[in-house]
Amino acid sequence: MNRFHKEGEGAGMNTHKQEDIQLVIITGMSGAGKTVAIQSFEDLGYFCVDNLPPSLLPKFLELMKESNSKMSKVALVMDLRGREFFDSLIAALDEMSDLDWITPRILFLDANDKVLVSRYKETRRSHPLATTGLPLEGIEMERDLLEELKGRSQMIFDTSDLKPKQLREKIVTHFATSQGQVFTVNVMSFGFKYGLPIDADLVFDVRFLPNPYYIESMRPQTGNDEEVRSYVMKWSETQKFTEKLIDLLSFMLPSYKREGKSQLVIAIGCTGGQHRSVTLANYLSEYFKNDYYTHVTHRDIEKRSRK
Questions:
Q1: Which of the chain's termini has less CB crowding within 10 Å, N or C?
Q2: What is the pLDDT of residue 11?
Q3: pLDDT tens across 233-248, in order?
Q4: What is the pTM of this model?
């Protein structure tokens, strides 16, 4: 009996149409770039699992099917540290070939022995299969073990001459469904009284702008309300600031993107994170949405109302 349950089998089981779910299995030589690869897939919006034992793949596929398309793009890294791992994966791949609700692809990362040895020396790591501690011994054993899996792979990337940035670009080229959404501009509003956001790449302080907080009717409102938005944006200081900030960001964002950065967090701060910063964060997100995938969050917008 197929452990993965073919289409339509099992009472109450969710069903998927063919090619509903994309599954990329990332494997290959240790030191060939699997860490960079899984990070790249995560940036592309894939649900990622690192170092999943092949024996757990059947159970994981059942969870994918039961998720009712919530896991439509999945990337798994599998390191084959022994013969038993290899046999489990081959058996799982054989059974998976009969499924019509999933599109599995194997991405095999490889590099020549000289480069792999050099990388192990640079990181001062020992190869997981090297019993004597010599990297080349483990590399040769691993290459023999992975020979059949490499032959089954739909895509083989030789990373011998690739820098991490180039590997990311190669993955984006082959797996991104929308090139325009790879680089994400996250705009965050926050209040300085609650501390700086630790994940911000750029921070701009707008506490010099006129504050709606001191107008009684607007005090309980936020920058999401039209009255507050109009008040903040009507001042010449605001208009000059947004003009100069947009000019600066229009220059910087393409450079960040070219350097291989997957996202940029722009934090806009005012005193309490309710009025001015919210207004400006919304404005920036709306302005750049035609050129980049933008996402806006308001970290502290509800904090005062909870007190």
A1: C
A2: 36
A3: 999 999 999 999 999 9
A4: 0.54
Q: Which residues pair with 23 in a beta bridge?
A: 74, 104
- Which amino acid, one-letter code, is at 171? I
CB count within 10 Å of CB 65 equals 23
Distance CA 283, CA 279 (A): 6
70-104 per-position pLDDT tens digit = 677 899 998 766 566 777 788 888 888 777 777 78
Instruction: From residue 278, give the alpha-carbon distance in Å to each of 152, 228, 244, 270.
Output: 52, 10, 18, 9
DSSP the chain: --TT--TT-STT-----TT-EEEEEEEESTTSSHHHHHHHHHHTT-EEESS--GGGHHHHHHHHHHTTTTT-EEEEE----SHHHHHHHHHHHHHHTT-SSEEEEEEEEE--HHHHHHHHHHHTPPPTT-SSS-HHHHHHHHHHHTHHHHHH-SEEEE-TT--HHHHHHHHHHHH-S-GGGSSEEEEEEEEGGG---TT-SEEEE-TTSPPGGGSTTTTT--TTSHHHHHHHHTSHHHHHHHHHHHHHHHHHHHHHHHTT--EEEEEEEESSSSSHHHHHHHHHHHHHTTTSEEEEEETTTTHHHH-
